[in-house]
Design goal:
Elements lengths: L1 E4 L7 E3 L28 E4 L18 E4 L4 E2 L2
Antiparallel strand pairs: 1-3, 2-4, 4-5
Length: about 80
């Protein structure tokens, strides 16, 4: 995963859900997690690996990562 980041007010989870262009969620690939370096300390280029093996029939497309705030149980905008 690669992010061009600025420090944030707190540490967030990375919200990893694969949803294709038809709105179908591929739950076997979900992988919400705390990154190895907290988002409150991110600055500039941040990169780390989270292995996922997509199924061969996964539709081509653009997939987006979001940040999750567990304290309020919602995605960060």
């Amino acid at each position: 995963m690669r992010f061009n980041a600025v420090p944030m007010a707190q540490d967030y989870y990375v919200f990893v859900h694969f949803v294709d262009a038809n709105g179908v969620q591929h739950s076997s690939l979900n992988g919400d997690h705390l990154p190895p370096v907290g988002t409150s300390r991110w600055s500039g280029s941040v990169a780390y690996n989270v292995p996922r093996t997509p199924p061969l029939d996964l539709a081509a497309g653009t997939y987006t990562l979001r940040l999750w705030d567990p304290a309020v149980r919602r995605l960060v905008r």
